[in-house]
Amino acid sequence: MAAIKQGLEQKMQQKLSPLQIQTIKLIEMPVQALEQHVREVLNDNPVIDDNPQKGEDEPRDVSISEVEEKEQSGGSLEENYGPQDDDIPSYNLHVNNWGKDERPEYNTFSVKQSFTQSLLEQLGYRNLTEHQRSVASFIIGSLDDDGYLRRDIESLVDDLAFRAGVESTAEEVEQMLKVIQEFEPSGVGARDLRECLLLQLEDKKRTPSIDNAIRVLRDQFDAFKNRHFSKIMSRLHLNEDEMKAVLEEIRRLNPSPGGQIDDSYNDQAQQVVPDFRLDYENGQLLLSMPRFSIPELRINQKYSEIMETGRLSDNKADKDAASFVKQKIDSAKWFIEALRQRQNTLESTMRAIIDYQHDYFIDGDESSLRPMVLKDIAEITGFDISTISRVVNSKWIETHFGIFPLKYFFSEGLENSDGEEVSTREIKKALREMVDGEDKHNPLTDDELVDGLAAKGYKVARRTIAKYRALLDIPKARLRREL
Questions:
Q1: Architecture of domain 413-480
Q2: Which helix (H) or strand (E) holds 205?
Q3: Which of 153, 264, 334, 396 is spaced 20 to 30 A from 59 at the CA atom?
Q4: How far apart are CA 283 and CA 203, in angstroms?
Q5: Maximal CA-CA distance, the chain
């Protein structure tokens, strides 16, 4: 008989409150999405009247504070209608984000449509079920910045279930991926360089050089990567002119379809409302936040009467109705508190970024950008790194020298020859300039790039050069050599 073992296990588990969950969701939203979400919340809550314009003889709507005063005079809502989960302080359901002018207009900026937005827009034109659309949207959100899907299908199936609550299969994910691979720019959704280039070639009108290029990439990709052109010509029976035509076709392809949107998208613009505005006046940096429209919220007269009736009545139906109204009021209070916390979190984070990058924000000189990672700002603000990441994502700031996504200000750092820490963005810029100016018949090797950067004062290891080349989509020297 097997022995029965008894043990005591202690486990710590953190559970987020409804307020925390709601605040996290609001922090992730840029200002335009937030304003739309506010409207949706108000439409879903019948108790709240966000436009209480009554005539002198009409019954007026009442504020939350007035209702709470009535509660205190005649017993609490908890006593009258049962216990409620409400630990938010009492306040009038009102957030004032406006300045002296009654309703200032937004400063909107036309920016190039983002890669993800263009794919989601194309997805909208496809005749798909809601379930298929959810799967496809998740795949689009999983693409790298260069447009590749570097996740295996099984991992996507698991993530769909755990992160998005969507049950799917490998076959369905594969099917939706093929749909996305038909989108523009051509080559998007590829799982490697070979598939990316083949997708683009198969999109083109067939010619002998296109057919040969497809054969080269499909059957001789390893030889092509290593620029063993004589072997390719021998194996596929191509002459020198045909090989040159193949190389010319492949050279026209885009190895990073997510890096830039095709020219046909240049005229598609996204209206960006900055979440922050930074002015430089009299030697001082002045931060402000655009004022999104959150009107004064008051209880509709009809529902305030239901509250009053339920408070005084012994009738169960009246008390149930009053309890429903109380729940809706609590919901609105949670939402307003989450909005306040969002506002405070965004402002604290942006001020920390400005203080950290103070010299850069004076004149916008990129060389003044200090190395900065999410952890640096998390330590200053006391927020979690995940919170800083949510603030930075999809947020913009308008400065006196341009408008930028917050992600722009973050980069790692390395020491220069003087022992000073410099931003990796500065080093990458210098690397790109060296490669752009090299002799394409005799391109610079990684060792030569190391020496060149050292001459400019940047101490960079050879393996770091290889890493930065990959990030900048710069091939190895022998792959940059031109015939």
A1: Orthogonal Bundle (1.10)
A2: none
A3: 334
A4: 55
A5: 97
Integer Cα distance of 302 and 62 in angstroms: 10
8-state DSSP, 411: B
216 has pLDDT over 90: yes
Cα–Cα distance, 254 to 231 (Å, whole number): 25
Q: What is the pLDDT of residues 430-449, one digit of tens each?
A: 888 888 888 888 888 888 88
Q: Phi-psi bin for 78: left (phi > 0), alpha (psi -120 to 50), beta?
A: alpha
The domain spans of the chain are 26-108+273-410, 191-256, 413-480
Cα separation, 301 vs 63, in Å, equals: 10
* CA 132 from centroid of its chain's CA atoms: 22
Average pLDDT value for the chain: 76
Q: How far apart are CA 194 and CA 217, in angstroms?
A: 6
Q: What are phi and psi of 26, to 5 degrees?
A: -70, -35
The most confident of the ranges 87-91, 304-308, 345-349, 413-417 is 345-349
Query: Which residues have CB under 8 Å from 196's CB, separation 6+?
Result: 147, 148, 187, 190, 253, 255, 257
On the question of pLDDT at 175 being above 80, the answer is yes
Handedness of CA 76, 81, 86, 88 (dihedral sign): negative
CA distances from 363 to 205, 399, 409, 421, 468 (A): 49, 10, 14, 20, 27
Summary count for the chain: helices (H), strands (E): 22, 10
Predicted model pTM: 0.50
CB of 80 within 8 A of CB of 324? no
Look at the chain and count its residues: 483
Cα separation of 243 and 238, whole Å? Answer: 6
Question: Per-residue pLDDT for 277 more than 60?
Answer: yes
